[in-house]
Write a structure and sequence with these properties.
This is non-specific serine/threonine protein kinase. Its EC number is 2.7.11.1. Keywords: ATP-binding, Kinase, Nucleotide-binding, Serine/threonine-protein kinase, Transferase. The protein has helices at about 105-120, 155-165, 185-205, 235-240, 310-315, 325-340, 345-355, 370-385, 395-400, 405-415, 425-430, 445; strands spanning about 55, 60-70, 75-80, 85-95, 130-140, 145-150, 205, 225, 250, 265, 280-285, 290. The protein is an alpha+beta fold. The strands form four sheets. The chain has a six-stranded antiparallel β-sheet with strand order 1-2-3-4-6-5, covered by helices on one side. Strands 7-12 form a two-stranded antiparallel sheet. The chain starts with about 55 loop residues before the first strand and ends with a helix.
């Protein structure tokens, strides 16, 4: 058995908060231009692979053109498949998150299983997941990395919310409005998300945060629900949709660059040129945490604010962890303001949790879902009416009215106790809206 390789020595004394010893400001020029960015300290042995624009992977088949994003264990890049002459997404995992046996990689296994289920069930609706096109290993200075090639998707919901937020002129104190999705996009995406959950339940597959209860509970976040990108006609269109040519920060330190560090840092695409249109649908991404509905899930790598309330009280996943601290108390109080009072069976434990955090608590700005829903619906309608680029068809009033049905859906899903939550099928039945923007075309026929 080979010995564990010695860790790479930092180029200088470690900085506070930078375990690898690498800083940002004195190594790359104009670094503010490329934030947000994955932590530089993770570019060392067993960490991220240093990618340079123009790098080629898999015997030269895939050429990196832009950066799509990053997560805790991988970076994702726009690449051109020179053999098939198509754009793809190339996900490169940290070496420590990569397995020797590619077939045992959780995400590869999940995507292959999803494709198998999609095929044998003869599905006619678009996939609720991204297509896995290829996978391979790449050896670099920081180790051996698992690489997944998938179809190119558009921005996540979280990315588009950041785009909307960036449109706010913060220097104008009188500006009170923010951008949001079109009414039909909200309704169509809501329906597609529920259809995805129902499909996965039928297939016996559970996405990372979904609990296999008879009445489903899921913690899919805006970060792992992505739109498609059907409107890019040619390469120039795609670059414009991504927000323009890549923004980079070159390595500029006086000492030689260690091979574990990138030649330049690349800012992730902003997707500022993407716009929601009826042709786009949604996909669930990040399947590394998925499992069979028959498997017992012992713990979840979910942030506290994505956990459903029963995980705090009945120990569904994290009964061995001390989660109910001050931050949890604030979160639960805010949740109760939105969803209503906690179940009486949880009162004793809730009282003990409160005792652990003396002093003022809660955020009075939170209001119940029912109290704020109509205000939000009218706000969405107001923005749609003011949008000069948004052509309003004769049936636009049907879309405006259709938004009303989402209150019943959200109230049914956002129940404290899992057995009280409606099923995905029941939620779908409550969306009383006809999508008059597009005709349903089976994905198999499109291909």
């Amino acid at each position: 058995m080979s010995e564990e390789p010695e860790p790479l020595k930092p180029l200088r004394a470690p900085l506070p908060g930078h375990p690898g010893g690498y800083g940002w400001d004195d190594r790359y020029e104009e670094i503010v231009r490329i934030f947000p960015h994955e932590p530089l300290e993770k570019y060392l042995r067993n960490g991220f692979h240093p990618v340079t624009l123009g790098d080629r992977f898999f015997d030269g088949r895939y050429t990196v053109r832009h950066k799509l994003g990053f997560g805790g264990s991988a970076t994702v890049w726009l690449a051109k498949d020179d053999r098939e002459n198509q754009w793809v997404a190339l996900k490169i995992k940290q070496a420590k998150a990569s397995l020797d046996d590619l077939e045992q990689d959780p995400e590869i296994k999940a995507l292959k299983l999803l494709e198998h289920k999609y095929t044998i069930h003869g599905s006619t609706k678009p996939r609720c997941f991204s297509r896995l096109l290829s996978y391979f290993q790449h050896i670099g200075p920081n180790g051996t990395h698992t690489c997944l090639v998938t179809e190119l998707l558009g921005p996540s919901i979280a990315q588009m919310l950041r785009v909307f937020d960036a449109m706010i002129p913060w220097d104008d104190p009188d500006y009170q409005e923010v951008e949001t999705f079109r009414p039909d996009t909200i309704l169509r995406s809501s329906r597609q998300l529920l259809e995805a959950v129902e499909t996965l339940k039928v297939w016996g597959i559970v996405h990372g945060g979904m609990e296999p209860h008879a009445s489903f509970s899921f913690h899919i976040s805006p970060s792992n629900v992505s739109f498609t990108c059907q409107t890019a006609i040619d390469d120039e269109d795609l670059i414009e949709i991504l927000g323009g040519e890549p923004t980079i920060a070159e390595y500029s330190a006086s000492e030689p660059r260690d091979e574990c560090l990138p030649k330049h840092l690349v800012r992730a695409a902003t997707w500022s040129g993407w716009f929601d249109c009826p042709e786009e649908s949604i996909r669930l991404i990040d399947w590394g945490e998925s499992s069979s509905a028959n498997d017992k899930v012992s713990e979840l790598s979910q942030p506290i604010n994505l956990r459903s309330p029963e995980t705090f009280f009945i120990g569904s996943f994290d009964h061995r962890h001390d989660l109910w601290r001050a931050g949890c108390v604030d979160y639960i109080e805010s949740m109760a303001l939105v969803m209503g009072p906690l179940p009486s069976a949880w009162n004793d434990q809730w009282a003990r949790m409160i005792q652990e955090k003396p002093g003022p608590r809660g955020d009075p700005r939170f209001q119940s879902l029912r109290e704020t829903f109509e205000q939000r619906r009218h706000f969405i309608i107001k923005l749609a009416e003011k949008d000069e680029d948004f052509e309003k068809p004769d049936f636009i009033e049907d879309d405006y009215q259709g938004l009303s049905c989402l209150l019943s859906v959200m109230e049914g899903l956002m129940q404290h106790e899992p057995q009280e939550r409606i099923t995905s099928g029941e939620a779908l039945a409550r969306i009383q809206w006809v999508d008059q923007w597009v005709c349903d075309v089976p994905e198999n026929e499109e291909e």
